[in-house]
Amino acid sequence: MTQHLIVPSNPTPNGDLHIGHIAGPYIGADALRRAAIARGEDAAVLLGTAWQQTHVLLAARRQGRDVLAVASEFAAQIEESFAAADIGYDVMLRHEDMPSIEQMTRRAWSTLRELGMIAVRDSVAHYCSPCRAWRFQGLVAGRCPRCGSSDAYGIDCEQCGLYHDDAELLDAVCTVCHEPTELRSLRRAFLELEPQRAWFEQYLGSITLGDPVREYAESVMSEALPSVAVTVLGGPGIPALDEELPGQTIYPAFELAPRYVVMTARHSAGSVYEPARTRTSMVFGVDNAFERVFLFPSVLRGLTETHAPFPDVMHLTYFYMLDGAKFSTSRRHTVSVAELVGVAGADAARLYLAANRPERSPTNFTRSAFEGSAEVSAVRRLRAWADTGEIPRAEEDSSRDPCIELEHATSELADALQPERLSCQNAARAVLTLTGLAGASHGDRFRDAVLNVLVNGAVLVPDTAARLASAFAVPRTRFDGAAQRTSGGRG
């Protein structure tokens, strides 16, 4: 049996989840998990909140509270929001897992240091004189030196996602006092990526990258690969414990691979993954692209003895906009999961967010568009059928053959839920087509064929599918898009 490991971005517990998070990595991860199970395969979503981020520190400072207390509170809210959206997972790392993560992080650090992949040298970094503190990650903001966006902080740019050294940040200011920072000399550790170019070319060329990921990777590889600063001074994180780096902590993004190893160990419970039978898919936002495509596998090279499988499928999503501006927890520009689910239910929210998912470019959410959408209408129709046990006859287009449309929609749905070709947009479109076909005047066999696909393949609307299965006595069978394509017929 094929084992699917699905690894979405780690949510940051500086606030509750919003629907931009669901529309990005999490609806994709949940769809992959449910689809694999529907095919009769084994699947697990591996998660854990990223409490070491400076965004959590800033949230705690605003509240005048302990960082871990705030992180724990928001982590609980995040899990409640996953439940509200019917997003499943199999592993969720919590604060009590910190010792295991720290142990694995130190193992990776030690190995990469011994291999010469981590070098310590003098550099410059941002310092805030009014605060008398070094500023890294979310504690320093400015303009991206790569694309000029003002939506950049530390080494991250939320516009282009390309890496820049934090010292290269333009017009930098401290996000605590909002005064300009200054560059001062600081000895730090750097993970050297350019010496690994040949390995990256082989690895990235051997796995499945979604088109946006491949375009991103090619853009990064077209230049010299950077040296990535992997220690900070004065921020949250695991102490480096390096005599050349007194008081410094390991950059939180360095922990991604160690966290993943802890997740896989928790899931496998001591058994070893078989490479030939394990597929590992990563699903992340464009602002996490560099960390996931380059930093993560480089650090994982220092943990090869753990036998955690390298990802072999990678997909990214772009930003989901709210009324034309990016969703932002820190700026309180959000729509909560509970709010959207409260309007039309979890399945309607899931189907709409899947259909509007920013897979190829940013997409925009408005409340009016959601409430008047075809997706919300479709879920209401399906649930009405389940409540009454009847499917009203629909108006038909005589120029189109329902049997051919059923075959096409079934194939599209199955294909869209394969790890290599994941597209929640295409899967949602197929569900809408199937909903429209259910009332076609092609007899009971045709209706039953449509219901079979909706019940067993419509993983975007799991509760509604379960209701249909009960109301119409549809058996649960494996869904791979093959058997259902020959199930339809007249009479």
Low-confidence stretches: 483-491
The assigned structural class equals alpha/beta
- Estimate what percentage of residues fall within beta strands: 15-25%
The main β sheet shows up as: 6 strands, parallel
- N- to C-terminal distance: 38 Å
Overview of this protein structure:
With 491 residues, this protein is α/β, with parallel strands linked by helices. It contains 16 helices and 20 strands.
Concise synopsis of the structure shown:
With 491 residues, this protein is α/β, with parallel strands linked by helices. The protein has helices spanning 19-38, 54-63, 67-84, 98-114, 197-206, 211-221, 256-268, 289-300, 337-344, 346-355, 367-371, 374-388, 402-416, 424-437, 443-457, 462-472, and strands at residues 3-8, 42-48, 91-93, 118-128, 133-135, 140-143, 152-153, 156-157, 170-174, 182-192, 208-209, 227-229, 231-233, 238-239, 248-250, 278-285, 313-317, 320-322, 325-326, 363-365.
Question: Top keywords for this entry?
Answer:
4-stranded antiparallel sheet, alpha/beta
Set down the secondary structure blueprint.
Elements: E1 3-8, H1 19-38, E2 42-48, H2 54-63, H3 67-84, E3 91-93, H4 98-114, E4 118-128, E5 133-135, E6 140-143, E7 152-153, E8 156-157, E9 170-174, E10 182-192, H5 197-206, E11 208-209, H6 211-221, E12 227-229, E13 231-233, E14 238-239, E15 248-250, H7 256-268, E16 278-285, H8 289-300, E17 313-317, E18 320-322, E19 325-326, H9 337-344, H10 346-355, E20 363-365, H11 367-371, H12 374-388, H13 402-416, H14 424-437, H15 443-457, H16 462-472
Parallel strand pairs: 1-2, 1-16, 2-3, 11-17, 16-17, 18-20
Antiparallel strand pairs: 4-5, 4-10, 6-7, 6-9, 7-8, 10-12, 13-15, 14-15, 18-19
